[in-house]
Recover the amino acids of this structure.
Protein backbone atom coordinates (compact mmCIF):
# COMPACT_ATOMS: atom_id res chain seq x y z
CA UNK A 1 0.00 0.00 0.00
CA UNK A 2 1.44 3.28 -1.03
CA UNK A 3 1.33 6.18 1.36
CA UNK A 4 0.18 8.61 -1.26
CA UNK A 5 -2.85 6.48 -2.12
CA UNK A 6 -4.10 6.05 1.43
CA UNK A 7 -5.55 9.45 1.92
CA UNK A 8 -2.18 10.43 3.35
CA UNK A 9 -1.70 13.26 0.82
CA UNK A 10 -1.94 16.15 3.21
CA UNK A 11 -1.56 19.08 0.84
CA UNK A 12 -4.67 19.82 -1.19
CA UNK A 13 -3.79 20.21 -4.85
CA UNK A 14 -5.90 21.61 -7.57
CA UNK A 15 -7.30 18.84 -9.78
CA UNK A 16 -7.01 16.22 -7.03
CA UNK A 17 -10.09 14.39 -8.35
CA UNK A 18 -8.55 14.14 -11.79
CA UNK A 19 -5.53 12.48 -10.24
CA UNK A 20 -7.43 10.15 -7.93
CA UNK A 21 -7.71 6.56 -9.16
CA UNK A 22 -10.63 5.98 -6.79
CA UNK A 23 -12.46 8.92 -8.32
CA UNK A 24 -11.96 7.60 -11.86
CA UNK A 25 -13.00 4.10 -10.82
CA UNK A 26 -16.16 5.57 -9.28
CA UNK A 27 -17.09 7.30 -12.53
CA UNK A 28 -16.60 4.05 -14.44
CA UNK A 29 -18.60 2.15 -11.81
CA UNK A 30 -21.54 4.52 -12.06
CA UNK A 31 -21.54 4.39 -15.87
CA UNK A 32 -21.27 0.64 -16.25
CA UNK A 33 -23.87 -0.04 -13.57
CA UNK A 34 -26.32 2.14 -15.46
CA UNK A 35 -25.36 0.62 -18.78
CA UNK A 36 -25.85 -2.92 -17.50
CA UNK A 37 -29.38 -2.00 -16.50
CA UNK A 38 -29.93 -1.20 -20.19
CA UNK A 39 -28.16 -4.23 -21.58
CA UNK A 40 -31.24 -5.65 -23.25
CA UNK A 41 -31.59 -2.47 -25.28
CA UNK A 42 -28.00 -2.81 -26.45
CA UNK A 43 -28.25 -6.31 -27.80
CA UNK A 44 -27.59 -5.20 -31.39
CA UNK A 45 -23.96 -4.52 -30.61
CA UNK A 46 -22.26 -7.67 -29.35
CA UNK A 47 -19.05 -5.80 -28.51
CA UNK A 48 -21.00 -3.81 -25.92
CA UNK A 49 -22.25 -7.07 -24.46
CA UNK A 50 -18.70 -8.38 -24.28
CA UNK A 51 -17.64 -5.14 -22.61
CA UNK A 52 -20.47 -5.42 -20.10
CA UNK A 53 -19.41 -8.97 -19.26
CA UNK A 54 -15.99 -7.65 -18.32
CA UNK A 55 -17.47 -4.63 -16.58
CA UNK A 56 -19.59 -6.91 -14.39
CA UNK A 57 -16.39 -8.45 -13.04
CA UNK A 58 -14.88 -5.00 -12.51
CA UNK A 59 -17.99 -3.89 -10.61
CA UNK A 60 -17.43 -6.58 -8.00
CA UNK A 61 -14.51 -4.48 -6.74
CA UNK A 62 -13.99 -1.31 -8.79
CA UNK A 63 -11.00 -0.14 -6.76
CA UNK A 64 -9.18 -3.43 -6.80
CA UNK A 65 -9.92 -4.91 -10.21
CA UNK A 66 -8.71 -3.65 -13.54
CA UNK A 67 -10.83 -3.08 -16.60
CA UNK A 68 -9.87 -3.70 -20.22
CA UNK A 69 -12.81 -3.20 -22.53
CA UNK A 70 -13.29 -2.12 -26.08
CA UNK A 71 -16.43 -1.51 -28.10
CA UNK A 72 -16.74 -1.25 -31.83
CA UNK A 73 -19.03 0.73 -34.14
CA UNK A 74 -19.24 0.87 -37.92
CA UNK A 75 -19.42 4.39 -39.26
CA UNK A 76 -19.15 6.33 -42.49
CA UNK A 77 -16.34 8.67 -43.39
CA UNK A 78 -18.34 11.17 -45.46
CA UNK A 79 -15.27 12.85 -46.97
CA UNK A 80 -13.71 9.64 -48.21
CA UNK A 81 -17.06 7.93 -48.73
CA UNK A 82 -15.85 4.80 -46.99
CA UNK A 83 -16.99 2.58 -44.15
CA UNK A 84 -14.73 2.58 -41.12
CA UNK A 85 -14.63 0.99 -37.74
CA UNK A 86 -14.33 3.02 -34.59
CA UNK A 87 -12.95 1.33 -31.50
CA UNK A 88 -13.45 2.90 -28.11
CA UNK A 89 -11.32 1.45 -25.36
CA UNK A 90 -10.89 1.78 -21.62
CA UNK A 91 -7.94 0.41 -19.72
CA UNK A 92 -7.87 0.70 -15.94
CA UNK A 93 -5.11 -0.89 -13.98
CA UNK A 94 -5.09 -0.33 -10.22
CA UNK A 95 -1.99 0.11 -8.18
CA UNK A 96 -0.29 -3.18 -7.42
CA UNK A 97 2.73 -4.01 -5.30
CA UNK A 98 4.82 -3.73 -8.48
CA UNK A 99 3.18 -1.11 -10.68
CA UNK A 100 1.66 2.34 -10.51
CA UNK A 101 -2.02 2.64 -11.32
CA UNK A 102 -2.75 3.45 -14.96
CA UNK A 103 -5.80 4.80 -16.73
CA UNK A 104 -6.07 5.11 -20.49
CA UNK A 105 -9.00 5.76 -22.76
CA UNK A 106 -8.50 5.49 -26.49
CA UNK A 107 -10.24 5.94 -29.79
CA UNK A 108 -8.99 4.14 -32.85
CA UNK A 109 -10.13 4.13 -36.46
CA UNK A 110 -9.56 1.29 -38.87
CA UNK A 111 -10.40 0.40 -42.41
CA UNK A 112 -10.21 -3.22 -43.52
CA UNK A 113 -8.27 -4.18 -40.40
CA UNK A 114 -5.65 -1.46 -41.00
CA UNK A 115 -5.03 1.41 -38.65
CA UNK A 116 -6.19 4.83 -39.82
CA UNK A 117 -5.65 6.75 -36.63
CA UNK A 118 -5.36 6.31 -32.90
CA UNK A 119 -5.26 8.71 -30.03
CA UNK A 120 -5.34 8.00 -26.34
CA UNK A 121 -6.03 9.97 -23.20
CA UNK A 122 -3.88 9.15 -20.20
CA UNK A 123 -4.16 9.94 -16.56
CA UNK A 124 -0.93 9.77 -14.63
CA UNK A 125 -0.57 9.38 -10.93
CA UNK A 126 3.06 10.11 -10.28
CA UNK A 127 3.24 13.28 -8.21
CA UNK A 128 6.86 14.00 -9.08
CA UNK A 129 7.45 13.23 -12.72
CA UNK A 130 10.73 14.87 -13.60
CA UNK A 131 9.95 14.55 -17.29
CA UNK A 132 7.17 17.09 -17.06
CA UNK A 133 4.10 15.15 -18.05
CA UNK A 134 0.69 16.83 -18.11
CA UNK A 135 -2.25 14.94 -16.70
CA UNK A 136 -4.69 14.30 -18.18
CA UNK A 137 -3.17 14.41 -21.61
CA UNK A 138 -3.99 13.40 -25.17
CA UNK A 139 -1.37 11.74 -27.30
CA UNK A 140 -1.27 10.36 -30.81
CA UNK A 141 -0.48 6.68 -31.33
CA UNK A 142 0.61 4.83 -28.22
CA UNK A 143 0.59 1.18 -27.28
CA UNK A 144 -1.83 -1.20 -29.00
CA UNK A 145 -3.61 -3.29 -26.39
CA UNK A 146 -4.08 -7.03 -26.95
CA UNK A 147 -7.81 -6.45 -27.24
CA UNK A 148 -7.29 -3.92 -30.03
CA UNK A 149 -4.58 -5.96 -31.76
CA UNK A 150 -7.03 -8.84 -32.03
CA UNK A 151 -9.31 -6.64 -34.14
CA UNK A 152 -6.94 -4.43 -36.10
CA UNK A 153 -4.30 -6.76 -37.40
CA UNK A 154 -2.36 -4.30 -39.58
CA UNK A 155 0.92 -2.84 -38.37
CA UNK A 156 0.71 0.47 -36.47
CA UNK A 157 2.27 3.22 -38.57
CA UNK A 158 3.48 5.19 -35.55
CA UNK A 159 6.29 4.68 -33.09
CA UNK A 160 4.61 3.25 -30.02
CA UNK A 161 7.36 4.49 -27.70
CA UNK A 162 7.04 8.10 -28.79
CA UNK A 163 7.09 10.13 -25.57
CA UNK A 164 5.90 13.51 -26.79
CA UNK A 165 4.01 15.64 -27.52
CA UNK A 166 1.44 15.22 -24.81
CA UNK A 167 -1.35 17.72 -24.98
CA UNK A 168 -3.02 18.71 -21.71
CA UNK A 169 -6.70 17.86 -21.92
CA UNK A 170 -9.87 17.73 -19.93
CA UNK A 171 -10.46 14.36 -18.26
CA UNK A 172 -12.68 11.69 -19.79
CA UNK A 173 -14.25 8.47 -18.62
CA UNK A 174 -15.87 5.77 -20.75
CA UNK A 175 -19.21 7.58 -20.84
CA UNK A 176 -17.62 10.82 -22.02
CA UNK A 177 -15.34 9.09 -24.51
CA UNK A 178 -18.26 7.22 -26.04
CA UNK A 179 -20.38 10.34 -26.13
CA UNK A 180 -17.58 12.32 -27.72
CA UNK A 181 -17.31 9.68 -30.45
CA UNK A 182 -21.10 9.52 -30.80
CA UNK A 183 -21.27 13.27 -31.39
CA UNK A 184 -18.66 12.93 -34.11
CA UNK A 185 -20.64 10.18 -35.86
CA UNK A 186 -24.10 11.35 -34.90
CA UNK A 187 -25.71 10.48 -38.23
CA UNK A 188 -24.64 6.85 -38.30
CA UNK A 189 -27.32 4.23 -37.78
CA UNK A 190 -25.31 2.52 -35.06
CA UNK A 191 -25.07 5.79 -33.12
CA UNK A 192 -28.50 7.39 -33.59
CA UNK A 193 -30.27 5.21 -30.99
CA UNK A 194 -27.88 6.41 -28.26
CA UNK A 195 -28.09 10.10 -28.95
CA UNK A 196 -31.87 9.95 -29.14
CA UNK A 197 -32.33 8.09 -25.87
CA UNK A 198 -33.12 9.89 -22.63
CA UNK A 199 -31.34 7.22 -20.59
CA UNK A 200 -28.12 7.80 -22.54
CA UNK A 201 -28.29 11.54 -22.10
CA UNK A 202 -28.88 11.00 -18.36
CA UNK A 203 -25.79 8.80 -18.13
CA UNK A 204 -23.66 11.38 -19.91
CA UNK A 205 -24.97 14.16 -17.66
CA UNK A 206 -24.10 12.07 -14.62
CA UNK A 207 -20.58 11.51 -15.96
CA UNK A 208 -20.18 15.20 -16.66
CA UNK A 209 -21.12 16.03 -13.08
CA UNK A 210 -18.74 13.40 -11.71
CA UNK A 211 -15.77 14.00 -13.97
CA UNK A 212 -15.95 17.39 -15.64
CA UNK A 213 -17.53 19.54 -12.94
CA UNK A 214 -14.73 19.12 -10.37
CA UNK A 215 -12.22 19.67 -13.16
CA UNK A 216 -13.71 22.94 -14.35
CA UNK A 217 -14.47 24.06 -10.78
CA UNK A 218 -10.83 23.55 -9.86
CA UNK A 219 -9.74 25.31 -13.05
CA UNK A 220 -11.83 28.41 -12.30
CA UNK A 221 -10.73 28.35 -8.67
CA UNK A 222 -7.09 28.16 -9.66
CA UNK A 223 -7.42 31.03 -12.13
CA UNK A 224 -9.09 33.14 -9.46
CA UNK A 225 -6.89 32.19 -6.53
CA UNK A 226 -3.50 31.62 -8.16
CA UNK A 227 -3.47 33.44 -11.45
CA UNK A 228 0.32 33.50 -11.42
CA UNK A 229 0.45 29.68 -11.46
CA UNK A 230 -1.05 29.55 -14.94
CA UNK A 231 -3.76 27.09 -15.82
CA UNK A 232 -1.75 25.09 -18.34
CA UNK A 233 1.27 24.97 -16.06
CA UNK A 234 -0.86 23.50 -13.34
CA UNK A 235 -1.50 20.36 -15.35
CA UNK A 236 2.16 19.50 -15.05
CA UNK A 237 3.89 18.03 -12.01
CA UNK A 238 5.03 19.23 -9.56
CA UNK A 239 1.51 20.29 -8.92
CA UNK A 240 0.10 23.68 -8.12
CA UNK A 241 -0.93 24.13 -4.49
CA UNK B 1 -43.89 -36.00 12.97
CA UNK B 2 -40.70 -35.18 11.08
CA UNK B 3 -40.77 -34.88 7.30
CA UNK B 4 -39.97 -37.89 5.17
CA UNK B 5 -36.90 -37.98 2.98
CA UNK B 6 -37.38 -40.83 0.51
CA UNK B 7 -34.39 -42.86 -0.60
CA UNK B 8 -35.18 -44.65 -3.86
CA UNK B 9 -32.88 -47.49 -4.81
CA UNK B 10 -32.99 -50.71 -6.78
CA UNK B 11 -32.62 -54.20 -5.34
CA UNK B 12 -29.79 -55.08 -7.65
CA UNK B 13 -27.08 -55.13 -5.06
CA UNK B 14 -28.22 -56.33 -1.65
CA UNK B 15 -27.11 -53.95 1.05
CA UNK B 16 -26.79 -51.04 -1.34
CA UNK B 17 -29.42 -48.87 0.34
CA UNK B 18 -28.43 -47.45 3.74
CA UNK B 19 -27.98 -49.93 6.55
CA UNK B 20 -29.84 -49.33 9.79
CA UNK B 21 -26.81 -47.52 11.26
CA UNK B 22 -26.44 -45.35 8.17
CA UNK B 23 -30.16 -44.66 8.17
CA UNK B 24 -30.09 -43.51 11.80
CA UNK B 25 -27.05 -41.35 11.11
CA UNK B 26 -28.80 -39.67 8.18
CA UNK B 27 -32.07 -39.22 10.08
CA UNK B 28 -30.31 -37.62 13.03
CA UNK B 29 -28.09 -35.40 10.92
CA UNK B 30 -30.83 -34.25 8.57
CA UNK B 31 -33.66 -34.23 11.12
CA UNK B 32 -35.92 -36.25 8.84
CA UNK B 33 -37.45 -39.67 8.76
CA UNK B 34 -35.75 -41.68 6.03
CA UNK B 35 -38.24 -43.60 3.88
CA UNK B 36 -36.14 -46.19 2.08
CA UNK B 37 -37.85 -47.65 -1.00
CA UNK B 38 -36.03 -50.44 -2.74
CA UNK B 39 -38.01 -50.89 -5.93
CA UNK B 40 -38.10 -54.17 -7.81
CA UNK B 41 -40.04 -52.93 -10.78
CA UNK B 42 -41.69 -49.94 -12.37
CA UNK B 43 -45.00 -50.81 -10.71
CA UNK B 44 -43.65 -50.10 -7.25
CA UNK B 45 -42.40 -46.70 -8.38
CA UNK B 46 -45.83 -45.99 -9.90
CA UNK B 47 -47.42 -46.75 -6.52
CA UNK B 48 -45.12 -44.25 -4.83
CA UNK B 49 -45.92 -41.67 -7.54
CA UNK B 50 -49.64 -42.21 -6.99
CA UNK B 51 -49.17 -41.71 -3.26
CA UNK B 52 -47.19 -38.49 -3.81
CA UNK B 53 -49.86 -37.34 -6.23
CA UNK B 54 -52.62 -37.92 -3.68
CA UNK B 55 -50.82 -36.12 -0.87
CA UNK B 56 -49.39 -33.49 -3.25
CA UNK B 57 -46.00 -34.01 -1.61
CA UNK B 58 -47.11 -32.84 1.83
CA UNK B 59 -44.65 -33.75 4.61
CA UNK B 60 -42.08 -34.89 2.07
CA UNK B 61 -38.73 -33.13 2.53
CA UNK B 62 -37.32 -34.57 -0.67
CA UNK B 63 -36.07 -37.63 -2.50
CA UNK B 64 -32.62 -39.17 -2.75
CA UNK B 65 -32.64 -40.99 -6.06
CA UNK B 66 -30.24 -43.56 -7.43
CA UNK B 67 -29.14 -42.51 -10.92
CA UNK B 68 -28.97 -46.02 -12.37
CA UNK B 69 -31.81 -48.35 -11.39
CA UNK B 70 -30.88 -51.79 -12.60
CA UNK B 71 -33.54 -54.16 -13.88
CA UNK B 72 -36.52 -52.03 -12.92
CA UNK B 73 -37.24 -50.33 -16.24
CA UNK B 74 -39.52 -51.52 -19.02
CA UNK B 75 -38.97 -55.22 -19.75
CA UNK B 76 -36.38 -55.46 -17.00
CA UNK B 77 -34.07 -52.89 -18.57
CA UNK B 78 -32.32 -50.10 -16.71
CA UNK B 79 -34.30 -47.13 -15.57
CA UNK B 80 -32.62 -43.82 -14.97
CA UNK B 81 -33.19 -41.79 -11.83
CA UNK B 82 -33.13 -38.55 -13.77
CA UNK B 83 -36.29 -39.48 -15.73
CA UNK B 84 -37.97 -40.63 -12.53
CA UNK B 85 -36.99 -37.32 -10.93
CA UNK B 86 -38.85 -35.50 -13.70
CA UNK B 87 -41.89 -37.71 -13.09
CA UNK B 88 -41.83 -36.90 -9.38
CA UNK B 89 -41.75 -33.19 -10.12
CA UNK B 90 -44.65 -33.66 -12.54
CA UNK B 91 -46.89 -35.05 -9.79
CA UNK B 92 -45.55 -33.04 -6.85
CA UNK B 93 -43.36 -30.13 -7.91
CA UNK B 94 -42.67 -29.15 -4.31
CA UNK B 95 -40.38 -32.19 -3.87
CA UNK B 96 -36.68 -31.71 -4.58
CA UNK B 97 -34.83 -34.72 -5.98
CA UNK B 98 -31.14 -35.23 -5.27
CA UNK B 99 -29.25 -37.77 -7.37
CA UNK B 100 -26.70 -40.27 -6.14
CA UNK B 101 -24.58 -42.86 -7.86
CA UNK B 102 -21.49 -44.97 -7.52
CA UNK B 103 -20.55 -43.43 -10.88
CA UNK B 104 -18.44 -40.30 -10.68
CA UNK B 105 -20.36 -37.16 -11.61
CA UNK B 106 -18.01 -36.50 -14.53
CA UNK B 107 -19.13 -39.72 -16.22
CA UNK B 108 -22.81 -38.82 -16.18
CA UNK B 109 -24.11 -36.77 -19.13
CA UNK B 110 -24.65 -33.19 -17.99
CA UNK B 111 -28.18 -32.97 -19.37
CA UNK B 112 -29.20 -35.91 -17.20
CA UNK B 113 -27.73 -34.28 -14.11
CA UNK B 114 -29.96 -31.29 -14.73
CA UNK B 115 -32.99 -33.30 -13.70
CA UNK B 116 -31.58 -33.52 -10.19
CA UNK B 117 -31.35 -30.56 -7.90
CA UNK B 118 -27.83 -31.68 -7.04
CA UNK B 119 -25.75 -34.81 -7.18
CA UNK B 120 -23.57 -36.63 -4.63
CA UNK B 121 -21.41 -39.73 -4.84
CA UNK B 122 -23.21 -42.56 -3.07
CA UNK B 123 -20.29 -43.38 -0.78
CA UNK B 124 -20.10 -39.78 0.45
CA UNK B 125 -23.74 -39.86 1.52
CA UNK B 126 -23.39 -43.24 3.17
CA UNK B 127 -20.02 -42.52 4.74
CA UNK B 128 -19.23 -41.64 8.32
CA UNK B 129 -19.53 -37.89 7.70
CA UNK B 130 -22.31 -37.24 5.21
CA UNK B 131 -22.60 -33.60 4.01
CA UNK B 132 -25.53 -32.85 6.31
CA UNK B 133 -25.27 -29.06 6.00
CA UNK B 134 -25.23 -29.21 2.21
CA UNK B 135 -28.20 -31.58 1.99
CA UNK B 136 -30.16 -29.53 4.52
CA UNK B 137 -29.31 -26.33 2.61
CA UNK B 138 -30.54 -27.97 -0.60
CA UNK B 139 -33.80 -29.21 0.90
CA UNK B 140 -34.45 -25.99 2.82
CA UNK B 141 -33.43 -23.79 -0.13
CA UNK B 142 -35.74 -25.66 -2.49
CA UNK B 143 -38.63 -25.28 -0.04
CA UNK B 144 -37.96 -21.52 -0.02
CA UNK B 145 -37.85 -21.37 -3.82
CA UNK B 146 -41.11 -23.30 -4.05
CA UNK B 147 -42.76 -20.97 -1.53
CA UNK B 148 -41.59 -18.05 -3.65
CA UNK B 149 -43.32 -19.63 -6.65
CA UNK B 150 -46.53 -20.05 -4.65
CA UNK B 151 -46.36 -16.38 -3.67
CA UNK B 152 -46.43 -15.23 -7.29
CA UNK B 153 -49.82 -14.16 -8.61
CA UNK B 154 -49.75 -13.66 -12.34
CA UNK B 155 -46.42 -12.00 -12.98
CA UNK B 156 -46.19 -10.28 -9.58
CA UNK B 157 -43.76 -10.25 -7.95
CA UNK B 158 -41.52 -10.82 -10.97
CA UNK B 159 -39.05 -13.69 -11.10
CA UNK B 160 -36.25 -11.18 -10.58
CA UNK B 161 -37.89 -9.90 -7.40
CA UNK B 162 -38.45 -13.45 -6.15
CA UNK B 163 -34.81 -14.36 -6.69
CA UNK B 164 -33.47 -11.16 -5.15
CA UNK B 165 -35.66 -11.85 -2.15
CA UNK B 166 -34.17 -15.34 -1.94
CA UNK B 167 -30.52 -14.25 -2.09
CA UNK B 168 -30.88 -10.97 -0.17
CA UNK B 169 -27.91 -9.25 -1.80
CA UNK B 170 -26.10 -6.16 -0.55
CA UNK B 171 -27.72 -3.12 -2.16
CA UNK B 172 -24.58 -2.31 -4.12
CA UNK B 173 -24.89 -5.44 -6.27
CA UNK B 174 -28.61 -6.10 -6.48
CA UNK B 175 -28.93 -4.43 -9.92
CA UNK B 176 -25.99 -6.42 -11.19
CA UNK B 177 -27.49 -9.67 -9.94
CA UNK B 178 -30.82 -8.73 -11.50
CA UNK B 179 -29.01 -8.35 -14.83
CA UNK B 180 -27.29 -11.71 -14.40
CA UNK B 181 -30.47 -13.73 -13.75
CA UNK B 182 -31.16 -15.95 -16.76
CA UNK B 183 -34.11 -14.68 -18.82
CA UNK B 184 -36.17 -17.83 -18.25
CA UNK B 185 -36.21 -17.04 -14.51
CA UNK B 186 -36.99 -13.34 -14.72
CA UNK B 187 -40.73 -13.28 -15.42
CA UNK B 188 -43.56 -15.67 -14.71
CA UNK B 189 -42.67 -18.88 -12.86
CA UNK B 190 -44.41 -22.17 -13.56
CA UNK B 191 -44.25 -25.38 -11.52
CA UNK B 192 -40.88 -26.39 -12.92
CA UNK B 193 -39.28 -22.98 -12.38
CA UNK B 194 -38.44 -23.52 -8.67
CA UNK B 195 -36.29 -26.46 -9.81
CA UNK B 196 -34.56 -24.37 -12.47
CA UNK B 197 -34.13 -21.41 -10.12
CA UNK B 198 -32.77 -23.66 -7.38
CA UNK B 199 -30.25 -25.19 -9.73
CA UNK B 200 -29.12 -21.73 -10.81
CA UNK B 201 -28.77 -20.61 -7.19
CA UNK B 202 -26.80 -23.68 -6.13
CA UNK B 203 -24.68 -24.42 -9.19
CA UNK B 204 -24.17 -21.02 -10.80
CA UNK B 205 -24.80 -18.26 -8.33
CA UNK B 206 -23.04 -20.05 -5.50
CA UNK B 207 -20.99 -22.45 -7.57
CA UNK B 208 -19.21 -20.11 -9.97
CA UNK B 209 -16.88 -17.24 -9.26
CA UNK B 210 -18.66 -13.93 -9.76
CA UNK B 211 -20.75 -12.49 -6.99
CA UNK B 212 -19.59 -14.73 -4.17
CA UNK B 213 -16.21 -15.92 -2.93
CA UNK B 214 -15.67 -19.37 -1.54
CA UNK B 215 -13.11 -19.67 1.27
CA UNK B 216 -10.10 -20.08 -1.03
CA UNK B 217 -11.12 -17.13 -3.21
CA UNK B 218 -11.74 -14.97 -0.14
CA UNK B 219 -8.35 -15.93 1.24
CA UNK B 220 -6.70 -15.05 -2.08
CA UNK B 221 -8.51 -11.71 -2.24
CA UNK B 222 -7.17 -10.88 1.21
CA UNK B 223 -3.67 -12.17 0.38
CA UNK B 224 -3.95 -14.99 2.88
CA UNK B 225 -3.99 -18.77 2.75
CA UNK B 226 -6.76 -21.05 4.02
CA UNK B 227 -5.16 -21.20 7.44
CA UNK B 228 -5.14 -17.42 7.51
CA UNK B 229 -8.78 -17.17 6.56
CA UNK B 230 -9.83 -19.57 9.29
CA UNK B 231 -7.94 -17.36 11.67
CA UNK B 232 -9.80 -14.16 10.77
CA UNK B 233 -13.09 -15.19 9.18
CA UNK B 234 -15.13 -14.14 12.22
CA UNK B 235 -14.25 -10.53 11.48
CA UNK B 236 -15.86 -10.88 8.06
CA UNK B 237 -19.20 -12.32 9.17
CA UNK B 238 -21.08 -9.33 7.78
CA UNK B 239 -19.92 -10.35 4.30
CA UNK B 240 -21.10 -13.93 4.69
CA UNK B 241 -23.81 -15.12 2.32
CA UNK B 242 -26.91 -16.04 4.31
CA UNK B 243 -29.58 -16.28 1.61
CA UNK B 244 -31.35 -19.35 0.23
CA UNK B 245 -29.17 -22.47 -0.07
CA UNK B 246 -26.52 -21.09 2.30
CA UNK B 247 -24.60 -23.98 3.80
CA UNK B 248 -22.02 -24.05 6.59
CA UNK B 249 -20.10 -26.65 4.62
CA UNK B 250 -19.98 -24.44 1.57
CA UNK B 251 -19.43 -20.97 2.98
CA UNK B 252 -19.74 -18.08 0.58
CA UNK B 253 -18.88 -14.41 0.97
CA UNK B 254 -20.21 -11.36 -0.86
CA UNK B 255 -17.38 -10.06 -3.05
CA UNK B 256 -18.78 -6.55 -2.84
CA UNK B 257 -18.68 -6.42 0.98
CA UNK B 258 -15.18 -7.65 1.77
CA UNK B 259 -13.17 -4.56 0.86
CA UNK B 260 -15.21 -2.29 3.12
CA UNK B 261 -14.73 -4.60 6.10
CA UNK B 262 -10.98 -4.86 5.46
CA UNK B 263 -10.75 -1.06 5.23
CA UNK B 264 -12.68 -0.68 8.49
CA UNK B 265 -10.38 -3.13 10.23
CA UNK B 266 -7.25 -1.40 8.94
CA UNK B 267 -8.68 2.05 9.46
CA UNK B 268 -7.90 3.49 6.06
CA UNK B 269 -8.81 3.19 2.39
CA UNK B 270 -7.04 0.63 0.28
CA UNK B 271 -6.43 1.54 -3.34
CA UNK B 272 -5.69 -1.44 -5.55
CA UNK B 273 -6.01 -5.08 -4.58
CA UNK B 274 -6.88 -5.66 -0.93
CA UNK B 275 -4.19 -8.34 -0.83
CA UNK B 276 -1.56 -5.58 -0.99
CA UNK B 277 -2.66 -4.63 2.50
CA UNK B 278 -2.42 -8.14 3.95
CA UNK B 279 0.28 -7.28 6.45
CA UNK B 280 -1.66 -4.25 7.66
CA UNK B 281 -4.76 -6.43 7.97
CA UNK B 282 -3.02 -9.06 10.07
CA UNK B 283 -1.43 -6.33 12.16
CA UNK B 284 -4.85 -4.75 12.74
CA UNK B 285 -6.08 -8.15 13.87
CA UNK B 286 -3.17 -8.36 16.29
CA UNK B 287 -1.45 -11.28 14.65
CA UNK B 288 2.13 -11.18 15.86
CA UNK B 289 4.82 -10.44 13.32
CA UNK B 290 6.36 -13.88 13.73
CA UNK B 291 3.01 -15.60 13.09
CA UNK B 292 2.12 -13.63 9.95
CA UNK B 293 4.24 -15.42 7.30
CA UNK B 294 2.47 -18.73 7.81
CA UNK B 295 -0.90 -17.07 7.17
CA UNK B 296 0.10 -15.41 3.89
CA UNK B 297 -0.90 -16.67 0.44
CA UNK B 298 1.93 -17.95 -1.73
CA UNK B 299 1.77 -18.33 -5.47
CA UNK B 300 1.64 -21.87 -6.80
CA UNK B 301 3.95 -23.71 -7.28
CA UNK B 302 7.12 -22.11 -5.89
CA UNK B 303 5.47 -20.75 -2.74
CA UNK B 304 7.62 -17.62 -2.72
CA UNK B 305 6.38 -14.60 -0.80
CA UNK B 306 7.79 -12.27 -3.48
CA UNK B 307 4.55 -12.29 -5.45
CA UNK B 308 1.03 -12.14 -4.09
CA UNK B 309 -1.31 -14.60 -5.85
CA UNK B 310 -4.19 -12.84 -7.55
CA UNK B 311 -6.43 -15.68 -8.63
CA UNK B 312 -7.61 -19.18 -7.86
CA UNK B 313 -7.01 -21.88 -10.46
CA UNK B 314 -7.29 -25.62 -10.89
CA UNK B 315 -3.82 -27.09 -10.54
CA UNK B 316 -4.20 -29.07 -13.78
CA UNK B 317 -6.55 -30.21 -16.55
CA UNK B 318 -8.31 -32.67 -14.24
CA UNK B 319 -10.20 -29.64 -12.84
CA UNK B 320 -10.96 -31.27 -9.51
CA UNK B 321 -12.53 -28.88 -7.00
CA UNK B 322 -10.24 -30.11 -4.24
CA UNK B 323 -7.16 -29.43 -6.38
CA UNK B 324 -7.39 -25.69 -6.64
CA UNK B 325 -4.46 -23.44 -5.88
CA UNK B 326 -3.67 -19.78 -5.33
CA UNK B 327 -1.82 -18.61 -8.43
CA UNK B 328 -0.66 -15.61 -10.39
CA UNK B 329 -3.23 -14.67 -13.00
CA UNK B 330 -0.51 -14.47 -15.65
CA UNK B 331 0.30 -18.14 -15.03
CA UNK B 332 -3.23 -19.33 -15.73
CA UNK B 333 -5.56 -19.80 -18.66
CA UNK B 334 -9.33 -19.94 -18.97
CA UNK B 335 -10.91 -23.32 -18.32
CA UNK B 336 -12.34 -24.25 -21.75
CA UNK B 337 -15.69 -25.08 -20.10
CA UNK B 338 -15.95 -21.38 -19.29
CA UNK B 339 -14.84 -19.83 -22.55
CA UNK B 340 -18.17 -18.03 -22.65
CA UNK B 341 -19.38 -17.69 -19.05
CA UNK B 342 -22.85 -16.33 -18.25
CA UNK B 343 -23.14 -12.61 -17.67
CA UNK B 344 -21.84 -11.52 -14.29
CA UNK B 345 -19.72 -14.61 -13.77
CA UNK B 346 -16.02 -15.12 -14.28
CA UNK B 347 -14.40 -17.95 -16.14
CA UNK B 348 -12.75 -20.55 -13.97
CA UNK B 349 -9.02 -20.84 -14.62
CA UNK B 350 -6.40 -23.56 -14.92
CA UNK B 351 -2.80 -23.22 -13.80
CA UNK B 352 -0.56 -23.22 -16.84
CA UNK B 353 2.46 -20.93 -16.94
CA UNK B 354 3.29 -19.49 -20.36
CA UNK B 355 6.39 -21.69 -20.67
CA UNK B 356 4.18 -24.78 -20.53
CA UNK B 357 1.51 -23.69 -23.04
Amino acid sequence: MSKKTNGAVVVKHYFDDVRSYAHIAKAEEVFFKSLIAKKNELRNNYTIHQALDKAAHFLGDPIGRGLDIMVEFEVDDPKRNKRQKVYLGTLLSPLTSKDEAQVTHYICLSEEANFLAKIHLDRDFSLNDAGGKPTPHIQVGGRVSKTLAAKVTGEPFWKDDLAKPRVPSMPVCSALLWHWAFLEYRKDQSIVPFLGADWWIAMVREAEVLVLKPFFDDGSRLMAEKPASGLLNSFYVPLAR
Amino acid sequence: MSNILYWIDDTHDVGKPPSLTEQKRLEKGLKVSLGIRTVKDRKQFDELLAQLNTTNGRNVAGVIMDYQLTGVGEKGLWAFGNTWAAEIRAVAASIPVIGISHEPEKKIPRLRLESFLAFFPRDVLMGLRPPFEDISALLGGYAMAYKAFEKQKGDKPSGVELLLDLVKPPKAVSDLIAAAIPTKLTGHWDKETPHMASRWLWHDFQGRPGFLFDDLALATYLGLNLHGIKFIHRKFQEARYAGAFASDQRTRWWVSSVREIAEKLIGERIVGPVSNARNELLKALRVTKSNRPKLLARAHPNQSLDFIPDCVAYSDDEVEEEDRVQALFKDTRVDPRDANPPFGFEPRRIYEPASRS
Summary: The CA atoms of residues 29 and 132 of chain B lie 6 Å apart. Residues 4-130 of chain B form a domain with the Rossmann fold fold (CATH 3.40.50.2300). The first helix of chain B runs from residue 20 to 30.
